[in-house]
């Protein structure tokens, strides 16, 4: 195909793919990569997908996206959107600790210490590329799958799994394949951790509630469309042909300032019929998605079809921002400098630091004070229900206010839904502005009632929040607790109890223990009062029982439980059970693959304080 396209220039142009030849290289590299990526699309994903659909089967999966390889050959097939176009869902993979809390802007070693990961790429564009394709490809029906949890090591527990789940959900992933099981005998060294593990994993009991939470959240962000005011151009072809500003830089600036976006490939402009692309007054529509602004990361060379459409976009009233500079030319045709300038004349050049200011007019929400770790996702169900998901990915409690700037005149009431607790709370909504308090690792959904029937339905489900009442007083601490332990495989045959006080890091007593740590005490309660229990820190999942009644499972500090309904007047038995990961038990087990041993970093048991409050 290349010989036919290039004719007598074939050898010169082929050399120009690998060596810089100014008059040939951009076009040569585009042509080479264009052919390879389209052949992959046609002969792999499209062929498999067509066969599956002809036989009543849906085809899902993912490619290797590591460190930008989604737009390169070698590990990758050259172009993320083309590679997955034949599938019935979009898809991504998270494996080998590619995404880890706090490492969103730094390179770091993966779990085996071999490769270095680009944290900025994995944290800021991986999930969003997947969910964007799920929205703009009609056959995918808004569905994006993520294979998740695999090969993170024995130290991965429910706390990290919940964090990863929310990271994906708030970026639009709504189907999951948990890569966390093996039927081999324990311990299976391949791709740990393993839930179930033939009864050896202490946190297997908590895995079910995480899956229930995942299903509840998936249901809320499926069967509708994502609301994204900004279209961000995918940099694949730009990287093939010259210098680029990587997409992850721009995506990060948008996310840290609460501006939602989708990635859009150049193909959406060169093949408008396939993508159902329309440019209308005030919006760019691609399939179900409607954008009010377009951001273009710097690319030395750019697609001719898109360059021709920039003037149409700006004439339609859409701002088009070129981040860090406009292109020098196009990579797929001849456009004079004069024509290029005329097409781009109304587009504006901005810097990364200008993105928040320039896009605030189309933004869905604003928060005050500003916080770069608050993430959100806006979704509209087919029945018109407006849903906002909010997640705190930072390390500090966020307290402030959220302004639903686009919904003030449409919404009757705003309700707060906790999908983990399965509870709905009334908000203090005032003209679309509500108070927001979000602890690290916690998520909340805002449900917007826009008609009387929905408002009545949601109001009927409102319950009291588990949070400790502001007027509650702390009781004198229960200083001495009885502690006992058991390995998961032997649960519930706990050891003899011994007296301890908090904090109680059991790892200092037995550095290789993995299992359950139980704490028991009694509490004298008065009739007619409300009581709350707060555990400031623990490792890692916490179950609380009062008089043998289970009050629930929590996996993020602060662990707060409302004891009121389970308490009786007089003496009451309190039991706290903390499950660890398997990392300490497995730290002394040789690895047959020669991988470096995991060095346990976290404690065991209740590593903070226990407080009792009453009102």
Q: How large a portion of the residues is in β-strands, by DSSP E?
A: 25-35%
Strand order of the largest sheet: 6-18-19-24-21-22
The biggest beta sheet reads:
6 strands, antiparallel
Please count the beta strands (DSSP E, at least 2 residues each). 34
Helix content: 25-40%
Shape: globular
Number of helices: 17
Label the structural class: alpha+beta
Distance between the termini: 78 Å
Rg computed from alpha carbons, rounded to a whole number of angstroms: 27 Å
Average pLDDT rating: 93
Walkthrough of the structure:
With 615 residues, this protein is of the alpha+beta class. Helix content is 25%, strand content 27%. It contains 17 helices and 34 strands. Helix 7 links the parallel strand 4 and strand 5 (175-178). Helix 7 runs parallel beside helix 8 (204-220). It is globular, with a radius of gyration of 27 Å. The mean pLDDT is 93.
Give a nutshell description of this structure.
The protein has 615 residues and is of the alpha+beta class.
What's the topology here?
Layout: H1 2-6, H2 10-18, H3 25-54, H4 80-83, E1 90-95, E2 107-109, E3 116-118, H5 119-124, H6 126-136, E4 144-150, H7 158-169, E5 175-178, H8 204-220, E6 224-226, E7 230-233, H9 236-241, H10 247-255, E8 261-264, H11 267-270, H12 272-275, E9 277-280, E10 283-286, E11 289-291, E12 293-297, E13 301-302, H13 304-315, E14 320-323, E15 329-330, H14 337-344, E16 348-350, H15 355-359, E17 365-368, E18 374-381, E19 386-392, E20 398-404, E21 413-418, E22 423-426, E23 433-438, E24 443-449, H16 452-460, E25 473-474, E26 481-486, E27 498-500, E28 516-525, E29 531-535, E30 541-546, E31 549-554, E32 559-562, E33 570-579, H17 583-586, E34 610-614
Parallel strand pairs: 1-4, 4-5, 7-8, 7-12, 12-14, 13-15, 14-16
Antiparallel strand pairs: 2-3, 6-18, 9-10, 10-11, 17-20, 18-19, 19-24, 20-23, 21-22, 21-24, 25-34, 26-27, 26-28, 28-33, 29-32, 29-34, 30-31, 30-33
């Amino acid at each position: 195909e290349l010989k036919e396209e290039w004719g007598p220039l074939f050898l010169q142009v082929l050399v120009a793919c690998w060596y810089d030849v100014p008059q040939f290289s951009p076009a040569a590299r585009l042509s080479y990569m264009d052919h390879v990526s389209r052949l992959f699309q046609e002969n792999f994903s499209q062929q498999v997908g067509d066969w599956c659909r002809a036989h009543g089967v849906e085809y899902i999966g993912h490619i290797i996206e590591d460190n930008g390889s989604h737009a390169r050959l070698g590990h990758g097939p050259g172009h993320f959107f083309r590679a997955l176009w034949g599938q019935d869902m979009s898809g991504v993979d998270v494996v080998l600790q590619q995404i880890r809390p706090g490492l969103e802007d730094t390179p770091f070693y993966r779990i085996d210490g071999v490769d270095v990961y680009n944290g900025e790429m994995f944290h800021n564009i991986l999930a969003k590329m997947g969910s964007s394709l799920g929205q703009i490809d009609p056959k995918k029906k808004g569905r994006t799958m993520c294979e998740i949890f695999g090969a993170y090591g024995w130290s991965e527990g429910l706390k990290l799994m919940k964090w990863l789940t929310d990271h994906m959900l708030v970026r639009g992933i709504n189907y999951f394949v948990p890569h966390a099981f093996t039927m081999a005998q324990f311990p299976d060294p391949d791709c740990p951790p393993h839930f179930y593990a033939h009864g050896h994993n202490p946190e297997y009991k908590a895995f079910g509630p995480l899956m229930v939470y995942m299903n509840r959240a998936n249901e809320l962000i499926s069967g509708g469309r994502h609301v994204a005011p900004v279209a961000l151009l995918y940099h694949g072809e730009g990287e093939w042909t010259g210098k680029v500003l990587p997409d992850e830089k721009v995506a990060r600036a948008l996310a840290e300032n609460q501006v939602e976006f989708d990635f859009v490939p150049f193909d959406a402009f060169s093949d408008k019929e396939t993508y159902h692309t329309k440019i209308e007054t005030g919006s760019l529509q691609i399939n179900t998605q409607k954008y009010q602004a377009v951001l273009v990361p710097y690319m030395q060379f750019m697609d001719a079809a898109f360059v021709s459409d920039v003037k149409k976009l700006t004439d339609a009233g859409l701002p088009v921002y070129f981040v860090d500079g406009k292109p020098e030319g196009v990579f797929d045709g001849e456009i004079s400098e004069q024509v290029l300038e005329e097409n781009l004349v109304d587009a504006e050049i901005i810097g990364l630091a200008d993105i928040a200011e320039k896009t605030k007019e189309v933004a869905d929400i604003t928060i005050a004070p500003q916080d770069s770790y608050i993430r959100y996702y806006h979704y509209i169900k087919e029945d018109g229900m407006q849903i906002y998901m909010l997640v705190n990915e930072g390390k500090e409690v966020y307290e402030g206010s959220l302004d639903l700037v686009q919904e003030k005149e449409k919404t009757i009431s705003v309700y707060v839904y906790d999908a983990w607790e399965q509870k709905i709370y009334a908000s203090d909504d005032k003209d679309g502005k509500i108070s927001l308090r979000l602890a690290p690792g916690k998520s909340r959904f805002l449900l917007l009632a826009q008609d009387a029937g929905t408002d009545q339905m949601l109001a009927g489900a409102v319950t009291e929040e588990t949070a400790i009442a502001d007027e509650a007083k702390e009781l004198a601490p229960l200083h001495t607790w009885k502690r006992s332990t058991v390995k998961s495989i032997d649960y519930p045959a706990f050891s003899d109890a011994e007296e301890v006080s908090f904090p109680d890091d059991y790892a200092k007593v037995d550095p290789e223990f993995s299992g359950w740590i139980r704490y028991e005490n009694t509490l004298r309660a008065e009739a007619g009062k409300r009581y709350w229990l707060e555990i400031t820190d623990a490792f890692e999942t916490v179950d609380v029982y009062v008089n043998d009644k289970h009050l629930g499972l929590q996996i993020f500090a602060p662990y707060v439980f409302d004891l009121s309904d389970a308490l009786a007047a007089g003496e009451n038995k309190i039991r706290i059970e903390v499950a660890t990961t398997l990392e300490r038990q497995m730290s002394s087990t040789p690895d047959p693959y020669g991988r470096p041993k995991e060095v346990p970093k976290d404690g065991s048991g209740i590593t903070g304080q226990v407080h009792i409050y009453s009102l």
